[in-house]
Design a protein that fits this description.
By secondary structure, the chain is an alpha/beta fold. It contains 15 helices and 19 strands. The strands form 3 sheets. It has a 14-stranded parallel beta sheet. Strands 8-10-12 form a 3-stranded parallel beta sheet. A two-stranded parallel sheet has the order 5-7. The longest helix is centred in the N-terminal third of the chain and has 20 residues. The chain is globular, with a radius of gyration of 29 Å. The N terminus is likely disordered.
């Protein structure tokens, strides 16, 4: 009897998928297999434009995009790679603003107000005539949704170095007009950043502070008032951080800021004296001061400036020019301003000058734990033309002198000394610190820092950082000879900077 040939019923698939195909399908679907909370966490790491695109993948992805807790909207993300805003037309900038806002509207349209809290709504846009219309939509979202943190960063078409005084006046007028039309959106802000704006009225900043009642951070870059010699009194119940970079608001008095914790005051080029004073700032912890001091700039007495504060971190930057801090021999009362200092960072001290003056800070701050210094000349940021230096009244001699009134000074709390751009001429200074700091544990001595803009330039002075093991051993001996110290001295490459040291490099 002939053997029958039995066949299976036809299936919808003509062939069994191969093992490799199954693996690929599983890999492709691995993302969708993740739970919703993890996918939302992934989407939160994207900007709004990228997150909005995922909504077309499926109904599930559309629903997930409506649950985002972070909405980061950046108009410049629409810009073609390599294109600068200054080279774009007004129409291009208007379209960029509109595209970013439209993406935000699409995501917000799928949200049920009150169901999912927006942890952060961050909007970066260009200051143009269309801004009030576009931002009104963001303002509506702020009014109808639960939002914890709301941020505006207002950019200008021209960048800082391209702006003329007339540009600053125009941008300032545009911002004031925008601000007056959108006070509702501003009233819910917790962070505001402005640039390149010169305000005609001296009360503009006060109006911002009155309107933005929830503000925690306020930052100005290249801003000011047309009357340079005005007085700006800053009062606000919530503000915790203030930043002024290359601004001209006249005398800035931080009069009443009960929650202020950080202040950045960078470049006061047109003022002879530091135009900053502190009033009621009981929680102030960190102060950053940076200036390019010319020969006519007056020295700053830190004991006077900080007398009403309890600062714990102090960052001072010199931009490779004249030291503008006045070394002091302090009375007990004057030294009270330094009592709580734990961290001091001296950035871009000019090369080739005695560092003894820095010891006055160590002597004045008994609680100091970490002492950072960067000693370098940075050619790409310095004025190198001799005629221009002379005309602008740059100082020929940049260093300062100081002699300790105490011959056998001892410090008990300093545990770390970190020097960037260490050079063999600093051996005696390191020895001086090791001798005084009897509980010093670690000394980090880094090679010269590199800068992308300076790579093609020859260093102004030869680098004498010890490279060989023998040279380093010799230097360690010189630093510790005759001193009983357990400090560990490390010579390190600038390519391997410790993570907790990186933030101390200001340039």
């Amino acid at each position: 009897m002939a053997k029958s040939h039995l066949r299976r019923p036809a299936s919808t698939s003509t062939a069994k998928p191969s093992v490799s195909t199954i693996r690929k399908l599983k890999q492709q679907d691995r993302l969708s297999a993740l739970p919703d909370d993890i996918l939302v966490n992934i989407l939160d790491r994207l900007d709004v434009l990228e997150a909005a695109r995922t909504s077309i993948l499926s109904r599930r992805w559309s629903r997930l995009s409506a649950e985002l807790s972070r909405l980061v909207i950046k108009a410049q993300d629409v810009m073609s790679e390599g294109v600068r805003s200054a080279n774009m037309s007004d129409g291009d900038l208007v379209r960029m603003n509109a595209t970013a806002v439209e993406a935000t509207k699409n995501i917000l349209a799928h949200r049920n107000p009150g169901e999912h809290t927006i942890r952060l709504l961050s909007t970066t846009f260009y200051l143009k005539d269309d801004v009030p219309i576009s931002i009104a939509h963001v303002g509506d979202a702020m009014a109808t949704h639960k939002i914890e943190e709301a941020e505006f960063t207002v950019l200008t078409q021209k960048e800082r170095m391209q702006c003329t005084p007339d540009d600053g006046v125009n941008y300032g007028a545009q911002f004031v007009s925008f601000f007056n039309e959108c006070t509702g959106a501003f009233s819910g802000l917790t962070q505001l950043c402005l640039e390149n704006s010169m305000f005609a009225e001296s009360d503009t900043v006060s109006n911002i502070l009155v309107t933005c009642k929830q503000l925690k951070y306020l930052g100005f870059l290249n801003c000011g008032t047309e009357g340079f010699m005005t007085i700006l009194q800053v009062e606000h119940p919530q503000l915790s951080e203030l930043s002024f970079v290359d601004c001209c608001f006249g005398e800035v008095e931080l009069k009443w800021l009960p929650r202020l914790s950080r202040v950045n005051f960078v470049i006061w080029r047109i003022y002879k004296d530091l135009p900053l004073s502190f009033g009621h700032v009981p929680l102030l912890e960190a102060v950053t001061l940076v200036n390019v001091a010319l020969s006519w700039h007056k020295m700053v007495k830190l004991s006077t400036l900080l007398s009403e504060t309890s600062v714990q971190e102090l960052h001072l930057g010199f931009k490779c020019e004249k030291i503008w801090v006045q070394p002091e021999c302090l009375t007990k009362r004057q030294a009270s301003a330094f009592q709580r200092l734990r961290i001091v960072n001296l950035d871009c001290i000019p090369e080739g000058y005695d560092l003894t003056w820095t010891m006055f800070i160590l002597e004045a701050a008994p609680s100091l734990e970490e002492f950072y210094m960067t000693v370098m000349d940075h050619p790409c940021e310095m004025q190198m033309n001799k005629k221009r230096r002379k005309k602008a009244l740059y100082s020929k001699r940049k260093g300062v002198e100081w002699e300790s009134p105490t011959s056998n000074f001892v410090h008990h709390h300093l545990t770390k000394l970190i020097i960037f751009c260490f050079d063999s001429c600093m051996v005696s200074h390191v020895r001086r610190v090791i001798k005084a700091a009897v509980n010093l544990k670690d000394v980090y001595l880094y090679d010269r820092l590199t800068c992308d803009n300076c790579e093609h330039l020859e260093p102004l002075k030869p680098n004498t950082f010890p490279l060989s093991k023998k040279h380093r051993c010799s230097m360690r001996t010189l630093m510790t000879q005759g001193i009983e110290s357990h400090a560990r001295i490390r010579f390190l490459s600038s390519d391997g900077i410790h993570d907790d040291h990186v933030d101390m490099i200001l340039f």
